[in-house]
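$ ./design --mode recover --in tokens.txt
reading tokens...
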């Protein structure tokens, strides 16, 4: 969905996604608040930082792949890649080295992502309600 803002066109989030991400998410900001948040994010993604992250990411990916392949005949690659991406982000950008904390956040993150694309009905047991609760945790 598109809407007009500041002499331009901007994408507008679905109601369920907006409820889960919150009103101050990067996708819904515009103007100077958007520039401020974007510049903060870009400070993490400059070439010097990326060079520092590459070796850490390499060891993290190897560790996760070896851990996942340990004594298993089959591996769910898509789930593994999602988990590795989340772990890399949580560890490198947010400094969460504890596996227990990361695993709990990964579960809540997965629930929240599913809820972003669900029908925004806040009924007991609904995907949307579970996602809102996961965001709160």
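writing sequence...
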């Amino acid at each position: 969905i598109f809407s007009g803002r500041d002499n331009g066109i901007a994408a507008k989030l679905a109601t369920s996604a907006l409820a889960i991400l919150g009103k101050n998410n990067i996708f819904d900001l515009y103007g100077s608040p958007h520039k401020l948040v974007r510049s903060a994010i870009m400070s993490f993604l400059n070439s010097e930082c990326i060079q520092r992250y590459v070796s850490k990411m390499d060891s993290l990916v190897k560790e996760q792949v070896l851990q996942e392949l340990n004594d298993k005949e089959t591996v769910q690659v898509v789930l593994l890649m999602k988990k590795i991406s989340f772990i890399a982000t949580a560890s490198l950008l947010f400094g969460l080295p504890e596996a227990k904390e990361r695993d709990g956040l990964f579960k809540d993150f997965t629930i929240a992502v599913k809820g972003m694309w669900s029908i925004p009905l806040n009924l007991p047991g609904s995907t949307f309600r579970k996602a809102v609760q996961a965001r709160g945790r």
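exit 0
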